[in-house]
Amino acid sequence: MNGTNVSNTILERLADELSELTPEARKAATYVLENPRDVGVSTVREIAEAANVKPNTVVRMARQVGFEGYEDFRAPFRDAIRRGAADFPDRARWLQDIRKSDDLGGLYADIVQDVLRNVEETFAGILTDDLKTAAEAIWASRNVFTLGVGVNNSIARNFTYLASTGMKEFHAIPRPGSTPVDDLAWADESDVLIAITCKPYRSEVVKAVEIAREQGMVIVALSDSPASPILRLADHDFVVSVDTPQFFPSSVSIIALLETLLSFVIAVASDEIVERVEKFHNRRHQLGLYHEEKT
């Protein structure tokens, strides 16, 4: 269905009714069957114009397959886009459609609901023992490489920055001017790779994970599906929920999980880590990096 996950029954019903429709309604139905993604981001007039029919013809077509009108018919297609079943450009057009319909309050509610649900679903599917085992592997390693590209690059760098307050040899990759595979050139079984990617999966991340596996590295992977190519290669795999009305995957649950993983690393670490964190922050105070009110 051209990339949507709209229920097959809707389009199948439309196809079954095709011969029963008037010639004009058949034109509208044919257009929908061939371009289902357009429905979720188009008004009745836009669909009618694209199908070269009148708007009331599109409405009659929707009623023919059991819907009260076009908006009722369009709802499942819009839901598919909201759930991320369509490509980024389709979801961007859908957001613009919301603005035009002045339903920004509904968009706000959807985003808040998805943020909360993403965090709940992510942690509901993860066992504390799995986090503990991954944390122990990280603490016992020689080097930890955190890999994210695109929006996940800043997440990887933030995780590395936080970890560096108490631990050494954490590296966010790719480094400026480098590539992930080059950054892992000398890594081996003594090292850990934390890799992050969500649909559509970034090829350089998948390739880096494959190479890390060949080199014997311990792999901790965060992705949005058990079928993700990086989870299938990981020693420690974590599925994150990233649904959002936005046109790109939500980062909230990824950040929350990494913060939790880092907390577990601190918890399983030796006592020296407390001294490191204290020394790090004392040095910052001494250098005047923290604002302090004059008394």
From TrEMBL:
<dbReference type="InterPro" id="IPR035472">
    <property type="entry name" value="RpiR-like_SIS"/>
</dbReference>
<dbReference type="GO" id="GO:0003677">
    <property type="term" value="F:DNA binding"/>
</dbReference>
<dbReference type="Pfam" id="PF01418">
    <property type="entry name" value="HTH_6"/>
</dbReference>
<keyword id="KW-0238">DNA-binding</keyword>
<keyword id="KW-0805">Transcription regulation</keyword>
<feature type="domain" description="SIS">
    <location>
        <begin position="134"/>
        <end position="279"/>
    </location>
</feature>
<dbReference type="InterPro" id="IPR046348">
    <property type="entry name" value="SIS_dom_sf"/>
</dbReference>
<dbReference type="InterPro" id="IPR036388">
    <property type="entry name" value="WH-like_DNA-bd_sf"/>
</dbReference>
<dbReference type="GO" id="GO:0003700">
    <property type="term" value="F:DNA-binding transcription factor activity"/>
</dbReference>
<dbReference type="InterPro" id="IPR000281">
    <property type="entry name" value="HTH_RpiR"/>
</dbReference>
<dbReference type="GO" id="GO:0097367">
    <property type="term" value="F:carbohydrate derivative binding"/>
</dbReference>
<dbReference type="InterPro" id="IPR009057">
    <property type="entry name" value="Homeodomain-like_sf"/>
</dbReference>
<protein>
    <submittedName>
        <fullName>RpiR family transcriptional regulator</fullName>
    </submittedName>
</protein>
<feature type="domain" description="HTH rpiR-type">
    <location>
        <begin position="8"/>
        <end position="84"/>
    </location>
</feature>
<keyword id="KW-0804">Transcription</keyword>
<dbReference type="GO" id="GO:1901135">
    <property type="term" value="P:carbohydrate derivative metabolic process"/>
</dbReference>
<dbReference type="InterPro" id="IPR001347">
    <property type="entry name" value="SIS_dom"/>
</dbReference>
<dbReference type="InterPro" id="IPR047640">
    <property type="entry name" value="RpiR-like"/>
</dbReference>
<dbReference type="Pfam" id="PF01380">
    <property type="entry name" value="SIS"/>
</dbReference>
